[in-house]
Amino acid sequence: MFAAYAARIDRDQPLNGLELGERPAPEARPGWTTVTVKAASLNHHDLWSLRGVGLAEDKLPMILGCDAAGIDEDGNEVVVHSVVGQTGHGVGPRENGSILTERYQGTFAEQVTVPVWNVLPKPAGLSFEQAACLPTAWLTAYRMLFTNAGVRPGDSVLVQGAGGGVATAAIVLGSAAGLRVYATSRDAAKRARAVELGALEAFEPGARLPGRVDAVIETVGAATWSHSVKCLRRGGTLVISGATSGDRPAHAELTRIFFLELKVVGSTMGTKDELEDLLSFCATTGVRPVIHEVLPLDRAREGFETMASGDLFGKIVLTT
């Protein structure tokens, strides 16, 4: 079957390790199901995999891709939850949960095999392309907002770095849930788009907000860390799930964190139950993922190049 896969690790030039071509079809295994992939979406996790982060060389070649929507062996339209072994289903009793492609072949292919536990019904109102955007970036944003930040309708939230998959999802989900959402971006067009998607206002990085916020959604890291901490009200919560600009900020703002009793919460992915809630939220409210571009699988390299450049707003989707 045709697939996009990591053939080798290159920490400095990750796309050098990306290959497109034929790979073996997945083999049947007890407690697992093979999904015919209709659409799959790119994540920064795929670029990190090509750098060898979370992917050992002895696992190569590895088909990339965490997220997918397609049709299972029984003809059902499904969405794949991309954390394998989260509750032990389909794996050994001592195996910790891992994101798809860290141990098992991924979704950038005509077929993918996952534990039966890892598939959820796709809501009829979502296209395969839309549904394929949800299991990583949108699920991460959902967990950051509603589980780890614990915000409620009427609360205020700052989303750093509008345009990225998680940040875009947080703006849309937060607005739909009745939050007062602010956003930042270096790009004027992305700031304008953030407002179109529901942000009350969008600012340049480091700008002063109208008031301090209840929570900050942080995926940028070092470049925005100090600003994120300074924007929080007393007792507010900073939730971080990524550090695309680096993980060593020049100023940790420790004095401000303890003096104002701020909470810093790490967040990674989400649970199957949270994905089920997210699917229901989208089906009920009419919220739909923001898609930057849809490409056929044989043009996956173009999608990777766009994502690596940062010149996008929303998700890149690959279709078979």
Task: Describe it.
The chain is α/β, with parallel strands linked by helices and 320 residues long. The protein has 9 helices and 18 strands. Strands 3, 5, 6, 9, 10, 17 and 18 form a 7-stranded mixed beta sheet that branches. Helix 7 links the parallel strand 15 and strand 16. Helix 3 crosses helix 4 and helix 3 crosses helix 8.
Run of helices and strands: EEEHEEEEEEEHHEHEHEEHEHEHEHE
Tally the helices.
Answer: 9
Major pleated sheet: 7 strands, mixed
What percent of residues are in strands? 25-35%
End-to-end gap: 11 Å
Shape: globular
Count of distinct strands: 18
Which terms summarize this structure?
320 residues, alpha/beta, 7-stranded mixed beta sheet, 6-stranded parallel beta sheet, 26% strand, globular
Write the layout of secondary structure elements.
Blueprint: E1 2-6, E2 18-22, E3 32-41, H1 44-50, E4 62-63, E5 69-71, E6 77-80, E7 83-84, E8 98-99, E9 111-115, E10 119-121, H2 128-131, H3 134-148, E11 156-159, H4 165-176, E12 180-184, H5 188-196, E13 201-203, E14 213-218, H6 225-230, E15 232-240, H7 254-259, E16 263-266, H8 272-285, E17 291-296, H9 300-309, E18 315-319
Parallel strand pairs: 11-12, 11-14, 12-13, 14-15, 15-16, 17-18
Antiparallel strand pairs: 1-2, 1-4, 3-5, 3-9, 3-18, 5-6, 6-10, 7-8
Helix pairs in contact: 3-4, 3-8
